[in-house]
Specification:
- This protein is α+β, with helices and mostly antiparallel strands and 222 residues long.
- It folds into two domains: 80 residues, Orthogonal Bundle (Arc Repressor Mutant, subunit A); 129 residues, Muramoyl-pentapeptide Carboxypeptidase, domain 2 (2-Layer Sandwich).
- It is 53% helix and 13% strand.
- It has nine helices and seven strands; from the N terminus they run H-E-H-H-E-E-H-H-H-H-E-E-H-H-E-E.
- The strands form two sheets. It has a four-stranded antiparallel beta sheet, covered by helices on one side. Strands 1-3-2 form a three-stranded antiparallel beta sheet.
- A hairpin with an 8-residue loop joins strand 6 and strand 7.
- Helix 2 packs across helix 3 and helix 6 packs across helix 7.
- The protein is globular.
């Protein structure tokens, strides 16, 4: 399964849990026509990224549970729920339009840089607490912010190296109107990785996944 297809499947899992409440792996697999092994892989990834959490299954009003250990259920975290906040998208877009009308494009750019700096600081805090591979720190920080990020080899002659894949974008609707958000984020990634990076695709522009090409291993700690 491609990264784009996996991202769409995981979005479908999260949406199903949002609409139906806590569900077991078997129930989710049945609703989405996924095998037991397939659904487990997606659920493990969503738990790791902070979108879902394992909870005790709901008990019926009669209190009957049947024999044996009850299957664990999966529920949305605050992070997972926030990814569906379209009302917040409207509010953010309205606020940025007002900022642009009163302060000009430079004010929007300044806000985008401020937001990107918060991501940089999150990554640096991770590295301070647990020095290691910077690409891993980047993907963990992005996932905590709701982007469901992974890192993988680029795997093409044209783009060798690694690529960061963001399978979800909680601000996609806003970024579609204000590309400064994506541009500032890209510069922040280049800064923290210490190397040139290139955005190949963005969800805000209609792509299935945001892909950032990192042409070589970042210098420094590994």
């Amino acid at each position: 399964m491609t990264a784009v297809a996996e991202g769409r499947t995981r979005d479908a899992v999260v949406r199903l849990v949002l609409e139906s409440g806590p569900l077991t792996a078997a129930a989710i697999g049945a609703r989405l026509s996924l095998s037991a092994a397939g659904i487990r892989r997606h659920l493990d990834a969503l738990v790791s990224s902070g979108m879902l959490i394992e909870v005790e299954p709901r008990v019926s009003r009669h209190g009957a549970r049947g024999r044996g250990r009850p299957a664990r259920a999966y529920a949305l975290t605050d992070l997972g729920r926030s990814s569906f906040g379209h009302a917040y998208d409207d509010l953010a877009s309205t606020a940025l339009r007002y900022l642009r009308d009163t302060g000009g494009e430079s004010a929007v750019s300044a806000f985008a840089e401020h937001r990107a700096q918060a991501l940089t600081e999150r990554i640096e805090l991770k590295l301070h607490a647990d020095p290691g591979n910077r690409l891993v720190a980047v993907t963990e920080a992005l996932s905590e912010a709701g982007y469901a990020a992974t890192v993988e080899p680029a795997g093409t002659a044209e783009h060798s190296g690694m690529q960061i894949c963001q399978h979800h974008c909680p601000v996609a609707h806003v970024a579609a109107e204000f590309p400064q958000l994506c541009e500032a984020e890209t510069r922040a990634l280049a800064e923290v990785l210490g190397t040139y990076v290139q955005r190949l695709a963005t969800i805000a522009h209609g792509d299935g996944v945001c892909t950032t090409h990192v042409p070589q291993s970042p210098p420094g700690r590994h």
